[in-house]
């Protein structure tokens, strides 16, 4: 089918037969379609490793894997234990955006600027189980990001976000945003919640769409432009940072209430990434200052029964439960406490700086590389960029200790034409 809508002249093409979503975990990768494969017909051409540069890195939805887009294809890595599970080396060019859908056979691919086959204004939805392209989206402007849920495809442009239904690729929503060159957008990933957060139309504003509740919430998060944002898996909590890069704030997405504020530092910084631990006890922030900061959170700890929690979140009663008058349900003590100034008892008298919550633990890195972090098991933080893993003390905090180091672009598969399932 072909759908054209103005003024973007958006074209969507797929086969006449609706595809069925496959949940097989990393089905053995067959060669990609001819248009993506190397024109010579060799799906695994010999490419000098020194010629391969990293274009992008992105986590999958549960942070168990990450995909690396390179100037000559892409690669997928498992985090724990660390190993390369699949690679596609292409002479015809690379991919600037690789978006995984958990550990399934679905990938969203956007070509890098030097890709001779696919330009950066086109999104390809690839089903490796069927070894075919199941959707193709073309736009007049460059694609800034693609986000996937089991039921949604979200494409982020500079000033607009398109939300599609996964089963038939129909356009469901069009959302205008402030200039969004970073492609800021995040989704909830539990089955019974459907929440999206993105920049609003005002500086420092975050727009939260609760699709399941047919509700929009606008949160004035910062005075400066939004630089980074992330949500919990259930979409109930939102963490944001601005282009100033000094403060990170955590909000209740239902009513916009600010639940906690922590301070990364006093000087400006470019925030690369914010990560929330699965139990919402910890928050990690990486920046261009070469430091990953860990903060202890006082917000509600996620229930172990995610299915029960999802049903509660999706119910109309949630708006009452999580109103500003009943925030105690969202506040709980964590294992450690963030240090503050010795003058914090004079809150309201001295400048706000003196009452700030500072990082509980930290790890120092070279400032020349962009890093992104995620939480692993047993109080570990995985940092991609330094290509390794570090561990923090959940009681005493302080400096983290490097636990593992891997130069992931230099790893080799024993058989590059297959992928090991987990």
From TrEMBL:
Pfam families: PROPPIN (PF21032). InterPro entries: PROPPIN, WD40/YVTN_repeat-like_dom_sf, WD40_repeat_dom_sf, WD40_rpt. Its main location: membrane. One of its GO terms (cellular component) is phagophore assembly site membrane. Keywords: Repeat, WD repeat. The keyword Zinc-finger does not apply. It is a peripheral membrane protein. It comes from the Eukaryota. It is found in: Preautophagosomal structure membrane. The keyword Repeat applies. Belongs to the WD repeat PROPPIN family. This is WD40 repeat-containing protein. The lineage of its organism: Eukaryota, Viridiplantae, Streptophyta, Embryophyta, Tracheophyta.
């Amino acid at each position: 089918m072909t759908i054209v809508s103005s003024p973007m002249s958006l074209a969507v093409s797929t086969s006449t037969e609706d595809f069925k979503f496959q949940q097989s975990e990393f089905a053995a990768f067959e060669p990609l379609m001819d248009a993506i494969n190397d024109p010579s017909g060799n799906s695994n051409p010999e490419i000098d490793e020194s010629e391969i540069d990293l274009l992008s890195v992105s986590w999958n939805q549960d942070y168990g894997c990450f995909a690396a887009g390179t100037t000559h294809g892409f690669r997928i890595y498992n985090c724990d234990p660390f190993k390369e599970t699949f690679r596609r080396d292409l002479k015809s060019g690379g991919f600037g955006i690789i978006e995984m859908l958990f550990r399934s056979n679905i990938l969203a691919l956007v070509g890098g600027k030097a890709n001779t086959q696919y330009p950066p204004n086109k999104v390809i939805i690839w089903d490796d189980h069927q070894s075919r392209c199941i959707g193709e989206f073309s736009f007049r402007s460059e694609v800034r990001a693609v986000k996937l849920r089991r039921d949604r495809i979200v494409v982020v442009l500079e000033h607009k976000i398109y939300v599609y239904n996964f089963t038939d690729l129909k356009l469901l929503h069009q959302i205008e945003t402030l200039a969004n060159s970073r492609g800021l957008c995040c989704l909830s990933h539990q089955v019974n919640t459907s929440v999206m957060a993105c920049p609003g139309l005002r500086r420092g504003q975050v727009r939260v769409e609760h699709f399941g509740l047919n509700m929009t919430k606008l949160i004035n998060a910062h005075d400066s432009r939004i630089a980074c944002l992330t949500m919990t898996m259930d979409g109930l909590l939102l963490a944001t940072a601005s282009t100033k890069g000094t403060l990170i704030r955590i909000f209740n997405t239902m009513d916009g209430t600010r639940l906690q504020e922590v301070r990364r530092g006093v000087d400006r910084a470019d925030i690369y990434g914010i990560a929330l631990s699965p139990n919402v006890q910890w928050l990690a922030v990486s920046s261009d200052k070469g430091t990953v900061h860990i903060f202890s959170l006082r917000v509600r700890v996620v229930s172990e029964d995610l299915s029960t929690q999802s049903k509660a979140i999706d119910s109309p009663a949630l708006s009452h439960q999580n109103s500003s008058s009943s925030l105690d349900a969202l506040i709980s003590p964590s294992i450690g406490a963030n240090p503050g100034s010795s003058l914090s008892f004079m809150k309201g008298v001295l400048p706000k700086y003196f009452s700030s919550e500072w990082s509980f633990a930290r790890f120092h890195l070279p400032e020349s590389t962009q890093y992104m972090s995620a939480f692993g098991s047993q109080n570990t933080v995985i940092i991609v960029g330094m290509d390794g893993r570090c561990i923090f003390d959940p009681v005493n905090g302080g400096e983290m200790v490097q636990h593992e180091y891997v130069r992931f672009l230099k790893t080799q598969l024993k058989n590059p034409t297959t992928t090991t399932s987990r």
